[in-house]
Specification:
alpha+beta; globular; five-stranded antiparallel sheet
Length: about 140
């Protein structure tokens, strides 16, 4: 009986402390002819934002298989951020996307798309195809 109660308590705490984002910002990586741009600048920004603002974790999903040249979308959960942190996060995210698009070297390089007004609900995200959770411990490390 004690083992059953301990197991139930363990699973309850896991669900209680798990990330529970319901709204996600969408960042799209599109190709013009020769593949998509790298997501390294975005991931570097997420790492920097997380460590600077002492955010415990960011929930990030990746949807692949959106085109023949490797187009994909990243979905970043923002429900864990306060109002001021969220607006600072969006401002920085826009700056990263704009600088990455301006740094394109050729007309055949891909684009990064971001619209702060376009949010995706978790229910829609869970019904989409080819969506996987990116383990943030691997991609977003804090010092």
């Amino acid at each position: 009986m004690k083992k059953v109660l301990a197991t139930i308590g363990l699973f309850s705490s896991v669900f209680f402390f798990a990330q529970k984002s319901e709204s996600y910002l969408q960042v799209g990586y599109a190709s013009v002819c020769c593949g998509t741009p790298s997501d390294k600048p975005l991931m570097d920004y997420l790492t920097q934002f997380k460590s600077k603002n002492k955010v415990k974790s960011l929930e990030i999903y990746k949807q692949t298989g959106l085109g023949r040249e490797g187009e994909y979308k990243l979905y970043i959960g923002t429900d864990g951020l306060s109002g001021t942190r969220k607006s600072a996060f969006i401002k920085g995210l826009k700056a990263v996307v704009n600088s990455q698009n301006k740094a394109r070297k050729t007309e055949s390089a891909g684009f990064v798309n971001f619209d702060e007004k376009e949010t995706v609900k978790k229910s829609d995200l869970m019904n989409a195809r080819n969506v996987t959770l990116i383990p943030t411990r691997k991609t977003i490390k804090t010092k």
